[in-house]
Amino acid sequence: MSDRIAIIEGPLGADWCQPADLCHNAYGAITSFLGVVRDNHNDRGVTHLEYECYGDMAKNVLQHIIQECRDQFDPEARFIVAHGYGHMVPGECSVAIHVATAHRVAAFDACRHIIERIKEDLPVWKNEFYDDGTSLWLKGS
Amino acid sequence: MPTITMCYFAGLREQIGCNQEQYELPAQSSDQDILQAVIEKHPAAADRCSRSRVAVNHEFIRGKVQLEENVEIALIPPVSGG
Questions:
Q1: Residues of A in contact with B59 (CB under 8 A)
Q2: Residues of A near B (CB-CB distance < 8 A)?
Q3: Could you report the per-residue pLDDT of B26-56, keeping only the tens digit for each?
Q4: Domain annotation covers residue A138
Q5: Burial class (CB in 10 A: 0-12, 13-18, 19+), A97
């Protein structure tokens, strides 16, 4: 079983939002995290987001982050990680992370590690558009 | 001096007004040297540049690196994925 890593135009579809590909008798734990576009931020109504991405580098960064998880939590872990870019509206899924490991602690730790490292290093930028017609590039979170 | 492609993203791209430019930089350059070259060409973007990291061929760098001809460099403003 190999990892699935992708940078995809548009919101993530149902095939990325469930971990079925990771189900295997060797893995006793699967954790999942989905990042979903909200309709509000700092008391402002959000109409949509435009994610910009440095695609070639983003794939490299995800590979590095997954290797960190293997080194720190479980060398046998398997991963599905995808991030979308482009236009997204509230309720759509922008990031999906699924981790399969033998035991639960490593699965929780690796899933949390991946989303936190995405927030630090993945070259993706969120331009948030508000219901008053303005927009703002967000700086980290 | 090698000619390199400098890539810009997000608010920095909008402020500079293009996705990428060509620069000639010394073959031995540091991340700070690279940022300074962009600031000299685009002084109005100095604040955004100073808050950006530098990637060479899709890897973050710190300190000096060897730049080859046609290498791709990117200025990475604070990211906001997720």
A1: 57, 60
A2: 35, 51-54, 56-57, 60, 83, 94-95, 115, 118-127, 137-141
A3: 999 999 999 999 999 999 999 999 999 999 9
A4: no
A5: buried
Which CATH number belongs to the domain containing residue A89 in this structure? Answer: 3.90.1170.40
- Hey, which bits of B8-81 come out as E strands? 20-24, 28-30, 53-56, 59-60, 64-66, 72-76
Instruction: Tell me the domain boundaries of chain B.
Output: 3-76
Q: Using alpha carbons, select from A49, A41, A47, A38 the residue that is nearest to residue A130.
A: A47
Number of Cα atoms under 13 Å in the Cβ half of residue A59: 9
pLDDT > 90 fraction of chain A, expressed in percent and rounded: 94
Residue with tokens 């001096």: B1
Residue A26: domain span: 4-129
Would you say residue A86 has pLDDT above 60? Answer: yes
- Out of A56, A125, A127, the one facing B79 most closely (by C-beta) is A125
* β-strands A78-88, A93-101 pairing: antiparallel
Residue A30, C-beta contacts closer than 8 angstroms, at least 6 positions apart: A19, A22, A23, A98, A99, A100, A107
The ipTM is: 0.94
The CATH T-level fold of domain B3-76 is Ubiquitin-like (UB roll) (3.10.20)
